[in-house]
Here is the input.
Amino acid sequence: MNNIKLIASFFLLLILSAGCSKKEGIDQDLSFLNSATSSGVSKIFDISTDNSGNVKITPLGSGVSSFTVNFGHGTGASASAVVTQGSSATHAYPEGSYTVTIVARDLAGHETTTTYPLQVTYRAPENLTVSMSDETKVKATALYAKSFLVYYGDVTNETGTPMAIGQELPAHTYPASGGPFTLKVVALSGGAATTTFTKVLFGIPIDFENASIDYFFGTFGNVAFSKVANPSASGLNTTAKVGKYEKPAGAASWSGTYSPLNIPINFGYGKKIKVLAYNPDAANIGKSLNVELEWAIGTGSANPWGAVLKVPLTTSGAWEELVFDFSTISAIPANAKFTQLVLRFNDSADGAGEVIYLDNFRLTN
Here is the structure.
C-alpha cells in the first residue's frame, strides 16, 4: 500500500514540473502589444507674450512612447523635434498662422498624426520713451519692441532710419529753415503692431505763430516771458503773436530766460541772429538786450557756454530790428551748433518794471 502511494506522488510531481518548465513572464508571447495603441492625443501651446515668438509645445496622449513635433516653420533640423511623453519642444515663430503636426508613436510602433492650427500675434510695444542728447541724437526704449524706425520729418516721403534696441543714432543736421519739423519714432513689435511717438521740433526762426509748438522760454531771477498778442501790429512786424519779456521791479540784474532748442542754432547757415523788438517805454532806450548762446556741440571746445552779444534799444513805440553778429567773436568755430538760447535785458541793473516785446528770431549771414 505504501508503495502505491509513493508511485502516485512521483507521477504528480512530474506533472507539476512539466507545467512550470517556462519562466513566468518570459514566454515570448508579445501579442498584447498589438492592442497597446495611443489614444487621446492632444497638444498644449504655451505662447509667450514678450514678442520673442517662442511657443512651448507639450503634446499629450495615452500609451505614447514618443512624439515628433513638426513646427510648420523652419527648415532642416530646426523644423521639427522629437519629445518623449511629458516633455516639451520650444520654437520661435514670426508673427503669422501655422499648422503644427504631431506624430504620436506607441509601443508597438503604430503612428497617429494630428494637426493643430497655431496663431502667433505680437503685442504692440508699450511705454515708448524717446530721448535726444545734443538735441538731435535720438535714442528710444519700449517694452516688447524689437527695433525702431526714426523719421526726422525734414524730407518728403521720408524712409525711416532703422534703430536697434539700445542704439543711439548720430546727430541729425536739419536744414537752415529751422522747422518746425515733426520727429516720429515708431516702435516695431516684429509683427504688424506698432507704437508711435511724435514731437514737434523747432529752432530758429522763432515767430510764436505756430500753435503746435511749445515755445518754451524758462525763466530765472524773477523775470517773466509769455506769448501774447502783438501790441502794435504795424511797421516791421504785423504778425499776430509775439513774445513778452517782463523784468519786474527788484528782479536780479542777472535774471533772464532760457530756451532749450530742439534744433540747434547752426553757424554753418549763418552767424548773425536778427530779432525784432518793440519797446513801449522811452525810458528803455539805450538799455541792451542780451542774446546768449549756450551748450555748444560740434566745436571740440571744453567750454560749453558759448558766447554773449549785447545790442541796445534805439527807439520806442515802433518795431525795430536788432542784429547780433556772432562773426565778430573769432573764437567760435565755423561748425559750431548751440542748443540753448538765453535772453537777458539790461543786465547791468536790477529790474525797474521794464517790459519789451520780441519776435521773429532769424539766423542769417
